[in-house]
Amino acid sequence: MISRLIHLIQTRAFIRFVIVGCINTLTYYTLYVLFMSLGGLYIINHSAAFVISMVGSFYWNCYFTYRTKPTLAKFFQFPLTYVVNYSVSTLSLYVLIDLLQFSEFLSPLIAAIIPIPFTFIISRFILVK
């Protein structure tokens, strides 16, 4: 019974995490396209959009996903959750754009999906102690 309850809570948190991830991805992608329209290298535009959207993601995950109070300590630990996300998505962008010649505008959407499970596990560990 307790294990089923824990599973249900984790499932609901994961669903909320995916919703926040969709909002975060939309924010990231909108910023990325905006920055691309202004010029510059895709990797720099990707990095800038990533950092800005990560701040929003922190607050969404605190308030909506895990229903926990955001603190300064959590805010500074939260980027650790995105080390894997950033690494995997950046490597994916490189492979998709430079090696496979995919579109610079479609590739970020594809690359955003891969690190989702890893980010959920790490963010849960940091934000819910």
TrEMBL record:
The chain crosses the membrane at residues 13-35, 41-63, 75-97, 109-127. The keyword Transmembrane applies. The keyword Transmembrane helix applies. It is a multi-pass membrane protein. Pfam families: GtrA_DPMS_TM. It is found in: Membrane. Its main location: membrane. This is GtrA family protein. It comes from Lentibacillus halophilus.
